[in-house]
Amino acid sequence: MNLEEMGEFGFIRRISRGCIVRAEGVIKGIGDDAAVFTLEEKEAALVTTDLLVEGIHFLRDSICGFDLGYKAIAANLSDIAAMGGNAREAFISLAIPPTVSLEYLDGIYDGMKGLAGEFSVNILGGDTTASKRDLVINIAVVGSAPRDEVLFRGGAREGDIIFVSGFLGESRAGLHIILDRDHDRSEAFESLLLAHMRPRPHLREGCFLAHHGGVTSAMDVSDGITSDLCHMTKASGLGALLDSSYIPITDALRKYCGLCGLDPVEFALQGGEDYVLLFTVDPQRADQLSVDFEKAFGAQIFPIGVMKSREGIEVREEDGMRRALPPPGWNHFRQD
Amino acid sequence: MNLEEMGEFGFIRRISRGCIVRAEGVIKGIGDDAAVFTLEEKEAALVTTDLLVEGIHFLRDSICGFDLGYKAIAANLSDIAAMGGNAREAFISLAIPPTVSLEYLDGIYDGMKGLAGEFSVNILGGDTTASKRDLVINIAVVGSAPRDEVLFRGGAREGDIIFVSGFLGESRAGLHIILDRDHDRSEAFESLLLAHMRPRPHLREGCFLAHHGGVTSAMDVSDGITSDLCHMTKASGLGALLDSSYIPITDALRKYCGLCGLDPVEFALQGGEDYVLLFTVDPQRADQLSVDFEKAFGAQIFPIGVMKSREGIEVREEDGMRRALPPPGWNHFRQD
User: Could you say which of A28, B19, B46, B249 has the lowest number of CB atoms within 10 Å?
Assistant: First the structure.
């Protein structure tokens, strides 16, 4: 059966299965004019939304439905994580051209439901419609956080230590390997591929950081440290000094960069879609936070630099020399 | 200046102006990983979302930016109205092809901000990105309603009176006139054009109905009574009998149908995008509700039929004969 025979409502029935993974607080999911749910008292509501268009954000013949769905919702969950929130309900809209198979669509929803289910996130609604040419996905996620624990981009102070909650650059390397279609490297660097295809949103980590105290600002690393830290320093009216020897790089990425003749630090700073958290911490609280984090997650957080009063971002190289990081160049509307 | 020169962040700064029209409860709007706001205690949160794609939902050369933005947000506000809710925060995502001018985009946001502002709805976030070919708009609206006052599609009981909160079919006639590009008729039937281009979401009316008591189910008329009532009867496990002489039709629509040789009742029942509310009322409470509604709004609600235990929808004609309404045929995925 294809989508045309099944019709909009048949398709909605098909995708509705497995959408509610946590019934508590849900009054109405898919099937009415709007979804209805409750938020606990004294909680702030968080909403994030991403619009993904074929040919801009993904190439249908380069990514399977499952990975596309997984990554699309991972990016939104990561935004909630960056605010220190719990992700709660997701709303999925698809505009579907006639050339997309039902299997591909099922894959998208399976990828979304898999990751959403792991974090007790319900899919409560959305919209499904046709598209003449491009597959379009919009995801909106609603989360919540205690009002006084929400983490913003703009709260950092001079002297705060800059941390990341995981390794950098692996996702970008994974993308390179995929685009190169290099089978040998795909086998040798599976961990890099996985970092690109199955990023883990740091939701539990974000809640922990927000609740711990001492964290002054946070965001997720989606465009790359160079770009994201630039937003953070601007939002806080500050600058930053990074230490190149502190940038967390896995052995696999170091080896891959060696093979390709790339500078791993540079590569890690420019790499996007890491979906780790970038956050600043009161220097008086940083040591205790590191210890407590490691106890809670069995994993490290990495100090990579310090917030400075002078605008701009500098990197201190191993020889002690400082160089300015160029401002980020990403512009969705530039046609190269 | 064009979009490419302005860049994504320049464009976001441009559209951010005038987005917050009600600061109370807003902790963070555009500019962080997620928007943050509070809902009052004992309120249920409502979320609705619509994805609009060029070539499917609109033709860029047939609608100006202002009207496109206005209608897009009107449809979402109408969904919140249909649940008996207050609309609170909107999230606007645009995927923009290089052929769309800044003026057109400004028009879209002006249309959205105009209507949102009238109903104290903030625009708190969204996403802006590029598109290769088609302009894509996604809107998500968050609303709230007292938990015990939310109106669903599925609460109607046998014998409940079916009402609509306004006239039917005018929007469809307006669309006909626009597609015909008939200048004389455009002048003669301005009210029909307005009904199509500037539908008023019945938000205050929806809250009134939810709060009044006696209303057992509600939805908005977006696809046309034939289709929408079908959803409502199915959700309630019932059928319906409509009375053709009770279908509310304006003099202007009657005159237009006369000129075109169309049956105005049939036209009104099939017409979409009316964005009035379709709702069912306990027969014991219907008269009082009508009186109270007219007192509150200076406008009528119209009884059009009654809920029946037998499935399907019938219409009683003026001669007393009954005919079955065909089931709705709308299927986004059919290619005609």
Answer: B249
